[in-house]
Design goal:
heterotrimer; A mainly alpha; B mainly alpha; C alpha/beta; B: mainly alpha; 9 helices; 0% strand; C: alpha/beta; Rossmann fold; 5-stranded parallel sheet; 3-stranded antiparallel sheet; 8 strands; 28% helix; 26% strand
Chain lengths: 243, 222, 200
């Protein structure tokens, strides 16, 4: 089964129908293991038990960036390589990226509360993630604004690539802006070097969340393929001559 | 009355289904509010003090930008002709459209306020006060803005011109909305004073807006 | 019932479109408004519909309801179709029915009459130009109005569509209605002719 076969929506549906239950099962198992390990890990000497939010926060933050990278590849697939399923993938990925980013923001906010005394602090890292969240929402809005999916795909692909170029620029600018206003404490994730007791659960959770993304991504792609089929059927129905 | 109910229902359904739906207005609101600290600096104490003002400015701008299509969409597809011709008084039809617009675009802003209040370091009292003033004040923004929206149909330029025309008219609402929010937080004056003026402004706009809009539409038909 | 116009004058954008127009249309009859492009056919219809102010002259509908204006007793079918693409075909029709009169009619049956029976629950965005026209025409039979002001009713329609429109117009005339239609070709029902502008 080569990559070319995956380009055919029907084969894609058939393949994912077989693969998805297994993926979902493995994801669930890994998440369970990861959460158990996270619960068993020792408390941090400085932050206490709240440090364990890190096991959810860090994978989500990492994924929020990673998903934009995946969307960029899918954007290239739409614009450059003309892969038939590239835009389906891109459309399916955007809400997932937004969700992971949102989770990163919320867990980061909860984690920071004991540190800062407020639920929000305009520090460089959290602010960059907030901007990324708005960019995800913008892409989602763009997808919905254009009725024809293939035209929306090109617009969204361009915006995704522009976003990819801009993300490092935004990150740099926000870091610089933050240093101008130094005074608030800066949070450090888990300390400069991570103890093995933290590292293993963290890696397991990172892999588990990545698999979660893959599972949800494929499922969302299936939905999008089916949704487009319904749309095509409706259009054919409309153009059918009345009896 | 079923005709007005039908109009309100249609406008809400179209607003929710077409394009980005209610999300766009809220997304713009959030973006405007998020952008402010980059200009002002992340000083949480400062943001807390001017938070209500930032939220009100964001709501006003979001409201303005979504009002652009209030009448022009119907004019472009020919629905406006039929609405003008119908047995329902045009003033009531205009009011119904503005109400539908407020429900679809204004109410989501109010719902989003508590979340954004967190970003601006507002406490519960302040957030609640801002949300309450927005609840009472956003109808005023919509019903005042509809006058500009009706003019935009005639002028066919819409957009910025509508904003330029409507912004001065919206200043009283902004003043009393922010004043009421600050009064709830700082207590320098009783909350009731600016709040009741805000309510009065809204009620006046509920009457003046539809009449002015209907007059503009009739005048501007071609 | 009788629709009369005397000395109608129309000025649009500073230009005199027509002046001194007279006609009378009794119940059960149609008036075909003809003329070259730009002569003022659409302007006349919009003027009758109250969407354009008359620069002079008078319009009277004798035998109609006294408290209602002519516009409130008329259907106007313009160049644009007054459809929302995000609503389904039936939702579009139901909206106009409820907004214009609220009579309870069988929506799907009306849609079947105009040839859209197979598209009742489809989004209007998927309709072709001719099908959109048919949906607007469905509005004419969904709500009862004595006067029909039609601007090129058969434009965008194929021959079966034109037959359908002619049949609907005949039925309307038989029940005592009045039709004013701007048209380039024959209407499909017997009609007086009102030519605007000189001969080409």
């Amino acid at each position: 089964m080569s990559l070319i076969d995956l380009a055919n929506p029907t084969r894609f549906l058939a393949l994912t129908a077989r693969v998805l239950p297994w993926l979902a099962a493995i994801t669930t198992v890994l998440l369970a293991i990861g959460l158990y390990q996270a619960a068993m890990a020792p408390d941090d000497y400085q932050q206490g038990a709240t440090v364990k939010i890190m096991f959810i926060h860090v994978p989500n933050a990492w994924l929020s960036m990673f998903v934009w990278g995946i969307m960029s590849v899918e954007a290239l697939g739409t614009l450059v390589w003309r892969h038939p399923l590239a835009d389906v993938a891109a459309k399916a990925a955007a809400p997932l990226g937004a969700a992971f980013t949102f989770l990163a923001l919320v867990t980061g906010s909860l984690w920071g509360r004991p540190m800062w005394g407020t639920y929000w602090e305009w520090d460089a890292r959290l602010t960059s993630v907030l901007i990324l969240f708005l960019m995800y929402l913008g892409i989602m809005a763009l997808w919905r604004a254009v009725e024809d999916p293939s035209r929306a795909a090109r617009a969204a692909a361009i915006l995704t690539l522009v976003g990819a170029i801009n993300i490092p620029i935004i990150k740099f600018s926000v870091d610089w802006w933050n240093t101008l206003h130094q005074g608030a404490s800066v949070i450090r994730a888990g300390g400069p070097s991570m103890d093995r007791a933290f590292l293993v659960p963290l890696l397991i959770m990172a892999v588990a969340f990545s698999l979660l993304f893959l599972t949800l991504h494929l499922a969302a792609m299936r939905n999008e393929v089916l949704r487009r089929r319904v749309r095509t059927l409706q259009m054919m129905q409309a153009s059918r001559q009345a009896a | 009355m079923t005709s007005l109910a039908a109009l309100i229902r249609r406008d809400i359904v179209v607003a929710l289904r077409a394009g980005g739906g209610a999300m766009i207005g809220v997304l713009f609101f959030v973006s405007v509010v998020v952008v402010m600290p980059f200009a002002l600096g992340p000083d949480l104490a400062l943001l807390k003090r001017i938070g209500p003002a930032i939220l009100w400015l964001g709501a006003m701008l979001a409201s303005l930008l979504t009002l652009d299509r209030l009448f022009t969409a119907d004019q472009e597809d020919g629905s406006l002709d039929l609405i003008v011709m119908s047995r329902t008084p045009l003033e009531l039809s205009c009011a119904a459209k503005a109400l539908a617009h407020w429900l679809a675009a204004g109410v989501p802003l109010i719902v989003a306020t508590p979340l954004i209040g967190i970003l601006l370091n507002l406490d519960a009292t302040a957030t609640f006060a801002v949300a309450l003033t927005l609840l009472v004040g956003t109808p005023a923004l919509t019903f005042t803005g509809m006058i500009g929206a009706a003019l935009a149909v005639t002028l066919r330029r819409g957009g910025l011109l509508l904003a330029v025309v409507v912004l001065p008219l919206s200043i009283p609402v902004l003043i009393f909305g922010v004043a009421a929010s600050n009064a709830a937080v700082e207590g320098a004056m009783p909350f009731g004073t600016p709040f009741s003026i805000l309510c009065a402004l809204s009620l006046v706009s509920l009457v003046v807006g539809p009449f002015a809009a209907a007059a503009s539409l009739r005048h501007g038909l071609d | 019932m009788r629709l009369t116009a005397q000395g109608l004058k129309c000025v649009r954008g500073g230009r005199d479109i027509f002046s001194g127009l007279d006609f009378a249309v009794p119940a059960g009859q149609a008036l075909a408004v003809t003329g070259i492009n730009g002569a003022g056919k659409s302007s006349l219809l919009r003027l009758m519909a109250g969407l354009l102010p008359a620069a002079g002259g008078a319009i009277t509908l004798e035998g109609g309801e006294a408290e209602l204006t002519l516009a409130e007793q008329a259907h106007y079918l313009g160049h644009r179709d007054a459809l929302k693409p995000s609503l389904t075909v039936l939702e579009n029709l139901d909206f106009w029915r409820e907004f214009l009169g609220g009579e309870a009619i069988d929506g799907p049956a009306s849609l079947k009459t105009v040839g859209l029976g197979h598209a009742v629950h489809l989004p209007a965005a998927f309709l072709s130009a001719g099908q959109r026209r048919r949906l607007s025409i469905a509005r004419l039979i969904a709500v009862n109005r004595p006067v029909w002001l039609l601007d090129e009713p058969t434009s965008a329609l194929d021959s079966s569509g034109q037959t359908m429109v002619a049949a609907l117009m005949s039925a309307h005339l038989r029940s005592g209605g009045i039709i004013l239609a701007a048209t380039h070709g024959p209407l499909g029902v017997p009609a007086q002719e009102l030519r605007i502008g000189g001969d080409a």
